[in-house]
Amino acid sequence: MQVFPDLVVELKALVISLGRVEEFMNEIETQKLSSSDFTTTNIGFTGVNVAWDDDIIRSPNDFVLRNINLKFPLGALSGHKSSGKTLLLLSLLRETSLLCGTIHFPTTKVAYVPQQPWLENSTIRENILFGTNFEEERYWNVVDACGLLKDFENMEQADFTEYNDKDLVLSDEQKARIAFARALYSDAQILLLDDFLSIMDSTTARQIIDNCIKSPFIAGRTVIIVTYYVRDLLDISEYVVILGGGTVIAKGTTGQLLDSEALSNEMFRTNVDAKHDQIDTITQNSLNQTDDKKVWTTHEDPNSTLFSLLDGYKLSQANFIAIYALIASASALFIIFRMACQLLISLRGSKTLFSKLLNAILNAPFVFFDIVPLGKVMNRFSKDLSIIDQVSGLTVHYSPNDEPALSDIKFSVKAEEKIGIVGRTAAGKTTLANSFLRLTEATKGRIVIDGIDISTLSLEDLRSRLTIISQDPILFEGTIRSNLDIREEYTDEDLWESLRRVHLANFEEEHGQVFIIGPITSLDDLVSEGGSNFSRGERQLICFARTLLRRSKTGQIESLMETKKLNNREDGYDDMDEVETEVLDEQIEYN
């Protein structure tokens, strides 16, 4: 009997493994490039439809780039804007599914900087060299241009510091600058840059543009860049492409697009019949689920004694409803009892504390009032009635032998107050956010929320009551609806309202038809694993919408990138009026 549970676990793991192997073996083979796909003079597309994978043929809700006809001149800088940017770049590298058409790409070296920077487990210098020869002058010029010298000064072994995910903690901005330095140092004639500047604060991003992209390092190279900083690059861009709604909506030289005012036309509309869309999606999902699931059943002899006895004790539907109602009623009574106890205990505790303070003040000698200011006495009486969040003497180490990542941090946050915590890369903003969730434990000091030291709470209680929007948010595989409303607590109207507030969806009615403007056109839009089919900024805004739905009393926003694309950057933060909010941000303009 002791072996049976282990056997069940092993069998379950076996079934999962076989399913993964089967899925891999059934994948469509990668298409081989023919000689006609290569050209030594042009980069571009002719009549191309591309998707993330071949399953797109069976999933009409997934994103497809359609009817792409582009020709990028060599030696030009190209800027892409709006949806489908990453898909377009990866299509040049043949990392997507080509549905039709021809992709032209020369047989030369290519350097690619993804939106999510990648580093290998090696020294930082080896990450930059990436197998090329070390040229000292060129190397240090690239490092200086990418603003890495200051980072090296803070590392014990400078650029010989070993990088791995566990020991060396680098911010996403530092990783992006190292990845870009690798591309810049290489001898590749074509650079594909996928919106890596959006990870950085605006000051650093403009320094990278001035010191690198507008420098001799780029001379003679073809650079195709996805970026938000369009205005900063227009003066050197020879060709600009604007994407929207899965196709090219404008292309041409900078002068041509400025004359046609195409650069300001960044929004696209999708005509949606909400009711029809919802029915079709549910039907399709139901069919897919039925096709995908394999149901295993066993048949028992209905005449056996055991099953005959059990058959006589079957409960009717009314019995199940009665049991469920009884459990729900008992749960409601326990919740009311708990709330009443909390209220009575808190009220009694406040009265006791206030009485003790009052007796102490009334019995204090006159010299006490000469020494202690009256304002301090009043603060002592009011402190229990207006509890604040406090960080007191917080010191955090990632490992015992390292220098502290945070040292003696002290500050307080009043109820419904917003504070901003700013600083350059590796200043400790993310470490502070992790300390609130106890992802990193404090070596010294404490964090107090609503008068409770968080070290005394269980991790489940603590993390269920706090909300953080991280710099690199993760979404669950499923739909927009399942990511916003994990517990199915809210109506569709609530979900759309939260998306509207974060500018991911706006509604317009014209001639009796409803238009949805924005990257999300249906609550049943599919979300890939980790949210890989959305940009980093869009993932942050989806998490922001989820935060607005939860209405947590305490929240943290870590460098909400996409708010810089709104008309007013403060729009996103103003939606959290009733939340004690800490904004951990690098997107600050310094004068």
Task: Give an overview of the whole structure.
- By secondary structure, the protein is of the alpha/beta class.
- Among the domains are: 39-266, Rossmann fold (3-Layer(aba) Sandwich), CATH 3.40.50.300; 415-442 and 452-585, P-loop containing nucleotide triphosphate hydrolases (Rossmann fold).
- Helices cover 38% and strands 20% of the residues.
- It has 20 helices and 22 strands.
- The strands form six sheets. Strands 5-6-7-3-8-9 form a six-stranded mixed β-sheet, sandwiched between helices.
- Strand 18 and strand 19 form a beta hairpin.
- The radius of gyration is 29 Å and the shape is globular.
- Residues 55-59, 265-310, 562-570, 576-584 and 586-591 have low confidence and may be disordered.
Question: Which tags fit this structure?
Answer:
22 strands; 20% strand; Rossmann fold; 20 helices; 4-stranded antiparallel β-sheet; single chain; 591 residues; 6-stranded mixed β-sheet
User: What fraction strand?
Assistant: 15-25%
Shape: globular
Determine Rg (CA atoms, Å): 29 Å
Mean pLDDT: 71
What percent of the residues sit in helical stretches (DSSP H or I)? 25-40%
The termini sit apart by 72 Å
Number of helices: 20
Main-sheet strand order equals 5-6-7-3-8-9
Number of strands: 22
Name of the CATH class of the domain at 39-266: Alpha Beta
CATH topology annotation of the domain at 39-266 = Rossmann fold
Output the CATH homologous superfamily of the domain at 39-266: P-loop containing nucleotide triphosphate hydrolases
The residue ranges in which pLDDT falls below 50 over 5 or more consecutive positions are 55-59, 265-310, 562-570, 576-584, 586-591
Using the 3D structure, state the CATH architecture of the domain at 39-266: 3-Layer(aba) Sandwich
